[in-house]
Each structure stands twice: as structure tokens, then as C-alpha cells.
Amino acid sequence: xxxxxxxxxxxxRHLRAQQTRQxxxxxxxxxxxxxxxxxATISQIIKRANTGYGTAYVHFSGKDDFLIVLMEDxxxxxxxxxELPFFPQSRQEAEGMILHQTTTFLNLAVSERNMLKLFSxxxxxxxxxxxxxxxxxxxxxxxxxxxxxxAQKQGLARAxxxxxxxxxxxxxxxxxxxxxxxxxxxKASLDEIARTLVAIYTGGLYESSPAxxx
Length: 214
Prior knowledge:
By secondary structure, the protein is mostly helical. It folds into 2 domains: 2-60, Arc Repressor Mutant, subunit A; 65-213, Tetracycline Repressor, domain 2 (Orthogonal Bundle). It has 9 helices and no strands. It has helices at residues 2-35, 42-49, 53-59, 63-82, 91-111, 113-123, 127-153, 163-182, 190-205. The longest helix has 34 residues, at 2-35.
């Protein structure tokens, strides 16, 4: 009975710790969005979360640490797009899938514009945030490269190109438009941007001979 009670106590502490961490994260998100990353302070976050300094620093080492976790959460939604099943049987099918992914990615950038703006602000000041973005970018590149390699094995994509190099260029183009959306610099519609990106990408990567259309 004593062992069972001990496990129960541990589980209870763990649950409370997780709840406190989540409360701090939500407070940080609110404060960052209200004040901007640079003006926001740890004190404001702690006050909003109604926790103590010691408790907050058990979970997060500093203001940038809060933002990094929030960045991971937001970008997980973007990465879910990259992880959509990609097993096309023809170039036309591949183009349709890629257009869907690109359009969804750009629309998500619009809906997450305010959070992405925070990330952009922080990257210029905190090397830790910049490093986290580079890690996220690399994760995307490797996932996209897998899809390209699959298309090559199916005889749909040009076999002589390096999947990772192509994937890097493909993600960089998305990244450029993502930051344009954040800064409200995009003058074309998202649909036009997506269709143009896909036309250039698939036109260069995918074979156009009738035999390759499956």
C-alpha cells in the first residue's frame, strides 16, 4: 500500500508540474502577443501565470526559453503538413499533392502571423532562438528530401538531382514567402503564390515524358 501511495504522490506532483508549465506557457504567449517579445518580461509572465519566480525557473531558463517552446508548438503544425502522405503514381497526382501542401502552408502562415512575427523579432537578438529555427528548418528539409527520393524511385522525378539540395531550395522559397506574409509584403494572392511555386518546382523536378506519367 505504501508503494502504491508513493506512486500516486509522484503522479500527482508530475501532473501539477505539467499544469504549472502549461500555465506559464500560456501566460508567456499572451504577454508576448500583447507586449511584443522585446518589451515582455519574465515578471509579467510570472504575474499572469500566478506562480513564483522559483517555480518559473524550474521550468524555463529565460525569456528565450519560453519562446523556443512556443516556436516548437507552432511549427509542429507546419511540420504536420510536410508529413502528409506522399505516394503519387503520376506527375499530375504529385502536382496536386504538392499544391495542397503549399497552399496549406501559406494559409497557416497567415493564421499564425502574430506568433511568427515574435519569432522573427527574437531571432535577431537571441542566438538560441535562431539556432532553434535552423533546427526546425533542417527537419523540414530532410522530410521533403524523403518525398523527392520517393518520386525518383518511382521514376517520376529526375534521378540526376540531389534530393537534399532540391529540398533545401524548395523550403527556402516557402520560408521567404512565410516571412513576407509576416511582414505583409506579399502583393499577390496566396493562391497565385502557391501555384507559381509549384509550377516552377514540379516543372524543374518532375519528368515530362509520357512514359513518366504512370
